Amino acid sequence: MAGEINKGLVLLDYWVSPFGQRCRIALAEKGLSYESSEQELFGAKSELLLRANPVHKKVPVLLHDGRPVAESLVIVQYIDEAFPCTGPALLPADPYARARARFWAAYSDQVFEVGKRVWQLKGEERKQAREEFVRVLKNLDGELGEKPFFGGEAFGFVDLALVPFMPWLPSYERYGEFSVAEVPPRLAAWTRRCGERESVAKSLYPAEKVNEFLAQHKDDYGIE
């Protein structure tokens, strides 16, 4: 990647992981160069990953001069704090605004977690999951409001936390009972706006690639 050279940055990642994509967007926004180390998602974990994240044994993990930082939102905050003079700030400076951003970034995980239930469950459980999923999207839309981005005029922490989940929505429609037409208009417009950013466009894969991935790993993900 173009930008400031930081030989000590290595991202343990998997190409379609929305959690890893959060970290990629953050690194791109800050203009930081890094080495990408592609890991195995379903097979045996590498020795490097097991040493770097012995608790959860999963990606993403950021190595900075050999020291591991795990969990995507923790990694993004670390990047922002470790390189304060490089690129734009990802979190707001005001303590209350920062706390609010952390809340909504963490809440955005519900798009993925509840979304999984939409296409993995059946019958009444799937119906309930779909209803909850729509509520999650409406809550996010309410927080976004009429602002261009969740933090206001500038792309930031909540935006990069949420946007990697959006290319998964068409697959939820295909394998579940959710319709992308149920995405609130403001949130849909926000998704398109984020997609116009170079950091996002270069870090995410289109919905078609996500669907190909799910189709290839149907058994692993419990898709019939």
Automatic annotation (TrEMBL):
Residues 7-87 form the GST N-terminal domain. Residues 94-213 form the GST C-terminal domain. GO terms for molecular function: glutathione transferase activity. One of its GO terms (biological process) is glutathione metabolic process. The keyword Metal-binding does not apply. One of its GO terms (cellular component) is cytosol. Its main location: cytoplasm. Belongs to the GST superfamily. Is involved in the conjugation of reduced glutathione to a wide number of exogenous and endogenous hydrophobic electrophiles. PANTHER family: GLUTATHIONE S-TRANSFERASE, GLUTATHIONE S-TRANSFERASE, GST, SUPERFAMILY, GST DOMAIN CONTAINING. This is Glutathione S-transferase.
